[in-house]
């Protein structure tokens, strides 16, 4: 039986490129799957970049005409295809 969805915020599909920076894993670019007022899901395809739950990373959207702000986010979920991040200020 599927577990109930406990998310507080409505998710919106979003395919964007983001740069994720981690203190020990380094920096990589990934695609996103969705975004909400609370955070974003980052898709990881066959990569060894998988931060631990509770780790804080810096995320910056790529490909915009001007540099996007760098946001601190916390890893709150891990799946076989990526990880969920929550805005650290929440």
Question: How are the elements arranged and paired?
Answer:
Blueprint: E1 12-13, E2 17-22, E3 26-35, E4 39-43, E5 56-61, E6 71-79, E7 82-87
Antiparallel strand pairs: 1-3, 2-3, 2-5, 3-4, 4-7, 5-6, 6-7
Can you give a write-up of this model?
This protein is mainly β. It has one domain: Thrombin, subunit H, CATH 2.40.10.220. It has strands at 12-13, 17-22, 26-35, 39-43, 56-61, 71-79, 82-87. The chain starts with 11 loop residues before the first strand and ends with a strand.
Task: Throw out a few tags for this protein.
single chain, 90 residues, mainly beta, Thrombin, subunit H, six-stranded antiparallel barrel, globular
Quick structural summary:
The chain has 90 residues and is mainly beta. 0% of the residues lie in helices and 49% in strands. It starts with 11 loop residues before the first strand and ends with a strand.
